[in-house]
Amino acid sequence: MERYLKHQEIIEKSTKINQSYELDPRFFDDIVDELLNSELDTEDVILNGFQRLLSEVDQEIGRMEQFSNMEASCFKGCAFCCYFPIITSEMEAKMLFQSIKNFPQKRKQAIYDHWDRYFKDQKNKLKQALSMDYTDESTKLDYKKLNMPCPMLDPTTQACMAYEVRPIPCRTYLNYSDPQVCAENHLPKEPFSYEFLYDYYFGAVNELVQVLYENGEELFIDYPSDAWSYDYLPAWVQKWREGTLHEV
Length: 248
Fold this sequence. Notes:
The chain has 248 residues and is mainly α. Helices cover 54% and strands 4% of the residues.
């Protein structure tokens, strides 16, 4: 029988990470340097950087798990965290949408068709959710209680439709205890957040785009304003569909 970690064990292991684990920022910096020295065109540099830096967050979490002897109990189809408020910058949202635009036609169209249904089915909940102040931590529970799925969640498979480019909050919230705690609570105490990794990832993404911007490259991002404009992911999807995202 599989043994899950107890809450106190998770606290002890997270303390060990905080006190003893040394994160090497060169893992992120090297990706930026490699791409800036590559022969790729500007859009490919940005999208490759975006995806590789997202993946590096996963790799870093894996190194910390190995260091602390932890193994996540999350499984495909759970989708518990797909009902949390996901907040991103407009810059990341545009990178996400541009990545989806480059998906194979069938996969891309499935996402677009899903969004057509999603914004009709979730109309009332969206109105409530997007009126909440995303800067107020206390709204997280109210948002979760709406039971409104992420616009990237496939309602049939309960899997992310853009998994490889899913935002940082979707990657950094992990459960190491019995999965039942997620099934029974809106905000269980057991899951562990690696949200501090956002600074490393975003700093590298921002550096990549900043260098391109300062070199006078043509960007599909309105830099720097897009980097510091934040909102809920469903709000960005809605604006993208309406064509009201900031134009370059």
